[in-house]
Amino acid sequence: MLTPTMVSGQRVPQLRTLKPASQQDTIPAGQDSLRVSAPQGDIKSTIKYSARDSIMFEVDRKVVNLYGDAKISYGDLNLEAAYIQIDYETNTLLATPLPDSTGKDTGVPVFKDSGGTYSAKQIAYNYKTRKGRISEVVTQQGEGYIHAEVVKKNENDEFFGYHAQYTTCNLEHPHFFIGATKMKGIPNDKVMTGPFNLVVADIPTPLGFIFGLFPMPKNTRASGVIVPTFGESRAQGFYLSNGGYYFAWNDYIGTRLTGDIYSLGGYNISMDNTYRKRYSYSGNLGVSYRYFKNDEADIERSRTTNDLLNALPPTQRTIWINWSHSPEQKPGRGRFSASVNAGSTGHQRINYNSTSQYLSPTFNSNITYQKTIQNTPFSYTAKLSQGQTSGGVYNFVLPDLNFSMTPVSFFEVLTNNLPTGKWYEQFTIGYNVNAQNRLTNIRPATSNTFGVPITEGVARQDTISLSDFDQLWKNGRRSADHNFQLNLGSYKIARYFNFSPSVSYRESWTDQRYSFRFNPDSQKVDVDTTNFGRIYDYSANASLSTTIYGTAYIGGKRVEAIRHLIRPNISYSYRPDFGRESFGFYQNVQTAAFPAAGRDAFTLLPRVANAPGPGLQSRLNLNVSNNIEMKVRSKTDTTAANQFEKVSILDNLAFSTSYNFAADSIKLAPVSLVANTRLFKIFNVTFNSTFDPYKRDTLGRQVDDYVFDFSKLKLANLTNANFTIGASLNPEARQSSTSVPSNLPILNPDRDPLLPDYVDFKIPWTLSFDYTIGYFRTYGATAGTNINQTLSMNGSVNLTDKWKITYFAGYDFTNNNISNANLQIYRDLHCWEMSIGWIPFGFAQGYNITINAKSALLQDLRLTRNRSARNRF
């Protein structure tokens, strides 16, 4: 029976299933303890339909014809087309386009259900069995698009394509595709094909295989094979690189297991684990083991001492571990973080990913746990750290413990009352203790430590292994440093001056204390060591500061006034002479029976490491900073509120020095002059310099006589200076920002240093440069002046909306050479991209040309040609 209903403003029939008479309720009233539901018909929900032009009903055939922007909605099924036919007798939908006045088809059918979206020439679908046949179809599955002459769908939303094409290009006529006679797709899972081959620009290529498998997960990661890249290296031969498997264990953890294999015997195995727990922490743990085999370098090294040949890396086995862990900040909870980069000395020279990484002289690692105790001034930190140099020197701090107390008020602690404004209520005290256990594989020569000839003062480097732990412990140092800061408040004097006194005390405990004795037989100093040493250091300080304003009113057409701001600061510090024998921190030791000319027979040597410097200090410190700015009329805004704007002439001009009243000579410290400003809102200018107020003798030593000569207008000798001017000529570059949100672990492939990290076509061009000139003066036997000049420049330019060039270059005027240079060219090819990287100079020189598909799904579909430090030799 057809009953009318309103659809798009029209009364149209709707199919309704009637209940047969035999199924009428026969349970008498009062016996309804069991309810019997009527059986459902073939149609599970209401079919909603509409059309813009007309709707025609064929009641006898049970057919509805929809013309013009026809739309069907049935559960999760949606169908749009120029013409749709609903056949209630066969439970089928038929959708086709209609020709317009020019004969061109319009209203191409678009079909949507839980299996995906399909655009086709003709669609026939049975909404009861959920099976369908689609002709000349285009459908998107994940990141890919499937074109097929005919597609059939079954009740599980799986589709089967005939003469199908799989591509990631979103054009109607794709630039490239993977062609196969038969293709099967499982939505949100994978696409499978029979024998296939790659077609580029309608040209079939011989690239293909007997079957294809393309994962297409939806909002989840998937495990899969990582296809290796092929290449050639003179040192290690032909190779397959970065091939392996990615394991997506769950939504929080993923593992990338890859390896390299070389025809001359070398190999590399890498494991990279990425993990993330939302709102808690995220991190990455990687381990890499490499057997670098280079017989040619080994042979050449044994035959010659040529520096260039010795620069070739020899055969070696290396391992490297990197771990980064970042927690989410949560109030009241401890924070555990890690940044580990450690391993064999030569590993990074062989497996560098950037020029800075290759040239880095040191690598540091830290594992830290820190916590602030709520509602208290206390916090603590526990840290394990390690550092290593390219020369094989290892330093460990195991552990590094720190406990601190932020400054608290004496008044509040002692009385438990709120402050009332009394001057003594400003007294505060802070405390910090730091305990360290430092280990190293280097035992420095004792003579290098004290600067005098010591018995058996020989440097030695120890290897890192469990068998050497005893020697590492002996080379190490244990210490605990206690610091107290007593702030006596800040007070106004004569309304305009701020007076701030303070007292500090430091005490250190160490595991070694030295005693010295001159040995006349060996003519060297013998050293005795005890297991505990204690030193302390205290000082008193007071500062007086104010602010001085001066304004000159100009009243010109543009310039309204000029303001000069001066901030002088005078401070005084006092510390006793800790070199006196009564403190016991130093020992006056005979170091030679017959001292050479110009040297003393006795030397003051520290008995404890980090002993406070000898000599009484009664020092007056002076610092003056200046700021000059103009008040000018605004060119753009003439309203009363914004009629004027401030323009900085000089951001800062400061000089500082000190005078030690207790010193026997050379009481005035060098004068430091620093200036910086910004010109035209573009150029950043910085200048810093140091002036020596004393004369020097022929040996370069300071003489207690001032250089100052008013008649010659000479104040002091310039010893060093540095001037830098830099600019960024594109403001859009500073305002642009990019972010890639990520809530799940991602696959992090190895980066090539010649490939661009990110290409932003929104900024048409960028240009920034830094020019630095440095001056340094030496005295004595090597007296002279040195001037260094460097210029660095980097930027980018978009030649078109598809071409982008980035560049970096640095020039050293002193040595007349290019210190570093890098040029990268990028071309957007719609569904493909091309990148060219070139480093023309240095050990890392080389080039890389890569053409690859953009889609991460087909990231291994690429063509690469490169030469770098890895495969140049």
Can you describe what's shown?
Pfam families: LptD_2. Helix content is 5%, strand content 56%. With 873 residues, it is mainly β. Among the domains are: 2-16 and 42-215, Lipopolysaccharide (LPS) transport protein A like domain (lipopolysaccharide transport protein A fold, Sandwich); 224-310, no CATH class; 726-867, no CATH class. It has a 30-stranded antiparallel beta sheet that branches. The protein has a 6-stranded antiparallel barrel with strand order 6-7-12-13-11-10. The radius of gyration is 40 Å and the shape is elongated. Residues 1-41, 306-310 and 733-755 have low confidence and may be disordered.
Which key terms come to mind for this protein?
single chain, 873 residues, mainly beta, lipopolysaccharide transport protein A fold, 30-stranded antiparallel beta sheet, six-stranded antiparallel beta barrel, 8 helices, 5% helix, elongated, disordered N terminus, LptD, LPS-assembly protein LptD central domain-containing protein, LptD_2
